[in-house]
């Protein structure tokens, strides 16, 4: 049987079949102290976990931002290279047409002069066609 004695002290009274009663002080707050300590440890662990999680999220956001910027830069470079490629293709076509026009002029000039075109010139004219 547990009973209250002076103040808040709890005492367990053991009554044997022979002899006097035995009074044993009982600390009913020990379990409560242990639970409080456990809650404090858990709260600390939870706080550390939340902090680590927040740091990981911030690192992930920074990495995502970095990759998005890198992707934007690469897309801009692709667009610039595609435009440069179109310019070079147009320039190539211009010079190709100019070359062919000049070949035809040279071929006609040889025909007008009355002489047979040179062997190298025939080869050049056949390549342009």
In short:
72% of the residues lie in helices and 12% in strands. The protein has 129 residues and is mostly helical. β2 and β3 (22-26) form a beta hairpin.
Descriptive account of the structure:
- With 129 residues, the chain is mainly alpha-helical.
- The chain has one domain (2-101).
- 72% of the residues lie in helices and 12% in strands.
- It is built from 2 helices and 3 strands; from the N terminus they run βββαα.
- It has helices at residues 30-112, 119-128; strands at residues 2-5, 9-14, 22-26.
- The protein has a 3-stranded antiparallel β-sheet with strand order 1-2-3, with no helix packed on it.
- A hairpin with a 7-residue loop joins strand 2 and strand 3.
- The chain is rod-shaped.
- The mean pLDDT is 83.
Average pLDDT? 83
Range of helix content: over 70%
What composes the largest sheet?
Answer: 3 strands, antiparallel
Class from secondary-structure proportions: mainly alpha
Order of helices and strands: EEEHH
Q: Report, as a whole number of angstroms, the end-to-end distance.
A: 118 Å
- Principal-axis shape equals rod-shaped
Poorly predicted runs are: none
Number of domains: 1
For the largest sheet, list the strands in their spatial order.
1-2-3
For the secondary structure, the number of strands is: 3
Region (Disordered): 34-70
GO molecular function: DNA-binding transcription factor activity
Pfam family, one: bZIP_2
InterPro entries: bZIP (IPR004827), bZIP_sf (IPR046347)
């Amino acid at each position: 049987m547990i009973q209250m004695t002076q103040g808040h002290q709890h005492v367990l009274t053991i009554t044997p079949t022979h002899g006097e009663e035995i009074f044993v002080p009982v600390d009913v707050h020990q379990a409560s102290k242990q639970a409080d300590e456990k809650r404090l440890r858990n709260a600390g662990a939870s706080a550390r976990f939340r902090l680590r999680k927040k740091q990981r999220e911030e690192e992930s956001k920074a990495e995502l931002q970095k990759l998005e910027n890198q992707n934007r830069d690469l897309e801009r470079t692709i667009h610039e290279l595609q435009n440069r490629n179109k310019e070079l293709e147009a320039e190539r076509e211009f010079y190709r047409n100019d070359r062919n026009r000049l070949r035809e002029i040279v071929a006609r000039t040889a025909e007008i002069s009355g002489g047979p075109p040179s062997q190298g010139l025939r080869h050049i004219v056949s390549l342009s066609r």
